[in-house]
Amino acid sequence: xxxxxxxxxxxxxxxxxxxxxxxxxxxxxxxxxxxxxxxxxxxxxxxxxxxxxxxxxxxxxxxxxxxxxxxxxxxxxxxxxxxxxxxxxxxxxxxxxxxxxxxxxxxxxxxxxxxxxxxxxxxxxxxxxxxxxxxxxxxxxxxxxxxxxxxxxxxxxxxxxxxxxxxxxxxxxxxxxxxxxxxxxxxxxxxxxxxxxxxxxxxxxxxxxxxxxxxx
Length: 216
Fold this sequence. Notes:
The protein has helices at 4-21, 23-29, 49-52, 75-88, 102-112, 117-122, 124-128, 130-142, 148-168, 171-178, and strands at residues 37-42, 60-65, 92-98, 193-200, 205-208. By secondary structure, the chain is an alpha/beta fold. Zn(2+) binds at residues 42, 44, 98, 101.
């Protein structure tokens, strides 16, 4: 497995190759960034967005957390969305769930055995997973008898749907879709389309969940 010393060694080799083969891009990135996609993904180490999408530095603006949640009480998530839409002028937001997600599995377990208040009070991770656990509870309720990967797949989809809905309910997106001038750029920005995706780790493939929403 890679160690800290490897980071410097590998970066030195990568930087030499990158600046030699893509000097114009390297010079551009030193001045600015112009991504068209905001990626809201999971912190899982198996889903490095630039790698799995064969993207260049500067192509994708990114925020990641446990189980790719977009909570409306999360200032970090809202700040990323605001900057991406109102300053960078991104055109697409992708919420990306994935198979074999530890957060999904924890939420399913929590749906069957909810954590005690004392545990929630002492654990930021459990508090972060409360909305996802509620989603899992609803999926279990409406799909009695479903277990294993089939249950997890439905929870992943329901969670991605919820995050897409949460994003679309923000004032940032409502203003964008209404053509309101951005307070950060002083311009009317590109109208954003929001997508729901799932990454299948075993197949190394992105799947469109057909949850796309765009300006009415």
